[in-house]
Amino acid sequence: MNKDDTWLSISEMSNICRISRQTLIYYDKHDVFKPAYTDQKGYRFYSIYQVPYLREICALKDNDFSLKEIVDNFQNRTVHNIQDLLVEKKQKIEKEIETLQKKLQSIDDRLNYYKETEKEIQHIEQPYIKQFPERKILFAPWQPGNKPMDRSIMHYTHMKLRNRLNDINLHPDTGWGAMLLQEQLESSHQLKGAGGYVNLPDDFTGDASGDDIIMITVPGGFYACMSKYGMPYETQYVDKLNKWIHDNGYKAIGNLYDECLLDTTFYTEDNKRDFCQLRLPIQLPGVTF
Fold first, then answer.
1. How far apart (Å, rounded) are the C-alpha atoms in residues 131 and 225?
2. Does residue 160 sit in the same domain as residue 22?
3. Residue 60: which residues within 8 A CB-CB, separation 6 or more?
4. For residue 83, is it within any domain?
5. Sequence-ordered strand ranges (E) for 143-220
6. Structural domain of residue 60, as residue ranges?
7. Inter-CA distances, 81 with 55, 185, 251, Å
8. Are residues 134 and 258 in the same domain?
């Protein structure tokens, strides 16, 4: 080899293309990009005319193409083939972006959820009226059998519902709670027919029911709300909200929803109860619901 300005040492090639010597050595050993000449001492030399090839390799690597994809393309490189390679990568990235956007939306939803929960903590057991839009839920009745109602039955029912969401490829972090039937709210058997629910995404269409799980449309409108630290089967809070509704001349017109805001993962030594919000649809005087 006659050394002239067209030949570059590995260090010179490294500096020109801003790629490490170690990477160039790796490319040589794995037949990705080989030097034009290696002398008897093992020193690698490249031709200046190889720079466009290395430049293209670096460009493709920067766009996350694998070395195999790059090598295969160079072995049969045409304008048509490089377009196919780029289109395939574009489609893959678009799917990744779509997945990341869903994750970002999920994180934003959770942030907003906890911000609203912080506000609720400021007025525990203080009833007020709030308007909610229509939504859909999946409901499954609690099945305590001969056992007294407890947290374990709630957890079992909740996981049954979450598994159903997973079965139909829905994200299970849309909120959950308990539903108590309207006809039982002022009886001595308030938990009769009650059960757990999970919220369905706002844009969900179709039928998510299965086995003894049913999909229910929760009507939009005005709700009497009250936040509390307590489990859904501790019905003294239902009695308190019912009394406030009657005392203020309102009328309950539907099932009660006990939405879980902070669950077991937020328990402290001083408090080992869920933080929830009771929501009971009401008829306001002079307002059509």
1. 10
2. no
3. 69, 70, 73
4. no
5. 176-180, 195-199, 214-218
6. 7-77
7. 18, 69, 70
8. yes
The encoded tokens of residue 241 equal 């909200």
pLDDT in tens, 154-168: 999 999 999 998 888
The helix (run of H) or strand (run of E) holding residue 8 is strand 7-9
pLDDT value at 282 more than 70: yes
Handedness of CA 232, 233, 236, 238 (dihedral sign): positive
What are the phi and psi torsion angles at 199 (to 5°)?
Answer: -75, 145
**Angle of CA points 131, 122, 236, to nearest 5°:** 75
Rounded-to-integer distance, Cα 103 and Cα 95, Å: 13
Residue 219 belongs to what H/E stretch?
none
pLDDT digits 0-9 by tens, 68-90: 999 999 999 999 999 999 999 99
The domain that contains 17 carries what CATH number? 1.10.1660.10
Whether the CB-CB separation of 51 and 44 falls below 8 Å is answered with no
Q: What is the pTM of this model?
A: 0.72
pLDDT digits (tens, 9 = 90+) for 117-127: 999 999 999 99
**For residue 114, which phi and psi values (nearest 5 degrees)?**
-75, -30
β partners of residue 228: 276
CA distance 201 to 146: 35
CA atoms within 13 A on the CB side of 209: 8
